[in-house]
Amino acid sequence: MLTDTQIRNLKPKDKLYRKTDSHGLTLEITVSGSKIWLQRYRYNNKPTMMTLGHYPEMSLLDARQARDANKQLLKQNINPKDNKNKLTLSGLDFNEAFLQWHGKNTWSEDYSKDVSQRAGCHLLPFIGNNPIEGITTPDMIKVLKRLEDVNKLDTLDKIRGIASRVFSYAVGMGYITVNPVRDLPKDIFKQKQQKNYATITDPKEIGWLLRTIDGHKGSWQVRSALLLIPHVFLRPGELVKMTWDEVDFNDKLIRIKGDRMKMKLEHLVPMSKQVFSTLKDLSQIQTNSKFVFPTPRNKNDGITTSALLVSLRSLGIDTDTFTTHGYRSMASTRLNEMGLNGDAVEMQLSHRDANKIRNTYNHAQYLDDRKDMMQVWSDYLDKLKREI
Fold it and tell me: How many other CB atoms are found less than 10 A from the CB of residue 374?
């Protein structure tokens, strides 16, 4: 079998020659130095050869994927050469494939908009007008390396995922036979450093943090969110976009909709007396907004997580000391040390098993324990806040 190093080192000779890879895949080296991928196969008991592409535009990995895809076509009694001609005539570009794929999905409005914006900034301007059948692995590496060069490693991962899903859709629809992103090695890009969210777990420091936040003088929306977030274990994004139809005063539960949760399942947050009282007070404010924390300038949207972070920084709490995500690990650490039910803590943090059926069954598990736990936690926070 060939390797990339061997292929790069193949030099032209006085006459055309070929090097065999495996399972019918061959590389032809012409007198001019061109390197062309060929595939030998039999169709209707007749030996056939077709051109797959040129190296390095079509990498060794791409060529093997194309070969394997053609073998699957042969199992369906489809001549790969005829299928390639049909694909070439389709003229579908990446823009059209993206729009088709995007339109088939039933995401939340926010996630759908997020995917469109990311692709519109980092993907479509570079390959959108290219025929999808001609986009190669080197093309995609070039697109992703642009993001690596400016150290946008999170965005790189997301764009890679979007592109791979579009190409997979195109393979499924029969537009192309190879997903040029699917087997792209991760180790050819810089890896982002895993960094835990800064948190505080020492009881005296927790008291200091709560007293510091109590001195916030900004908008009532941000102040209220800052006061609530230590009590509810929610991720910042889940809290700031909370809507009034998710607040059940009768059952004393916050029911976060599944499409707003990381695991896409409805999440229950029992209200402690303190949380219930705070939300009751907020419900008396006439905002004409569905959001519990509407932005001061737009009642049709909630405040942002950035507003919470900016407020922490304005109070002198730096990024190495604490972030708004840190409340979750604070609660987990202290409640486990206090001897409360660890499974109930994990459920309240919405750390769910990947098995969706089991998750649905466990939806309200430990709810009584969680109700007691949330009250214990709020009382504990109030106690720490008073102790100077």
Answer: 25
Chain segment 94-111, per-residue pLDDT in tens? 988 898 888 887 776 667
Q: Which of 81, 115, 133 is the last residue of a domain?
A: 81
Q: For residue 143, which amino acid is it?
A: V
DSSP state of 188: G
pLDDT score of 199 more than 60: yes
Reported as a single tens digit per residue, the pLDDT across 317-371 is 888 889 888 899 999 999 999 988 888 888 888 875 434 433 444 555 678 889 9
Virtual torsion, Cα 73, 74, 77, 83, nearest 10 deg: 50
Q: Are residues 334 and 236 in the same domain?
A: yes
> CA 147 from chain center: how many Å?
16
Q: Are residues 77 and 128 in the same domain?
A: no
Give the per-residue pLDDT at 352. Answer: 57
Q: Are 213 and 227 in contact (CB under 8 A)?
A: yes
Core vs surface per residue 22-60: b (16+ CB within 10 A) or e: eebbbbbbeeeeebbbbbebebeeeeeebebbebeebbb
At residue 145, does pLDDT exceed 80? yes
How high is the mean pLDDT of the chain? 87
CATH of the domain at 120: 1.10.150.130
Question: Residue for token digits 């219930």?
Answer: 276
**Which CATH number fits the domain that encloses residue 48?**
3.30.160.390
Same domain, 131 and 216: no
What DSSP element (H or E) covers 311? helix 305-314
Give the domain range for residue 369: 203-386
Identify whether the C-beta of residue 184 lies closer than 8 Å to the C-beta of residue 160: yes
CA angle 147, 148, 151 (to 5 degrees): 90
> pLDDT of 247-271, one tens digit each?
999 999 999 988 888 767 888 999 9
Contacts of 134 (CB under 8 A, 6+ apart): none
Residue 195 maps to a domain: no
The domain total for the chain is: 3
Question: Residue 50 pLDDT > 70, yes or no?
Answer: yes
Q: What is the per-residue pLDDT for 195?
A: 57
CATH number for the domain including 336? 1.10.443.10
Residue 196 within any structural domain of the chain? no
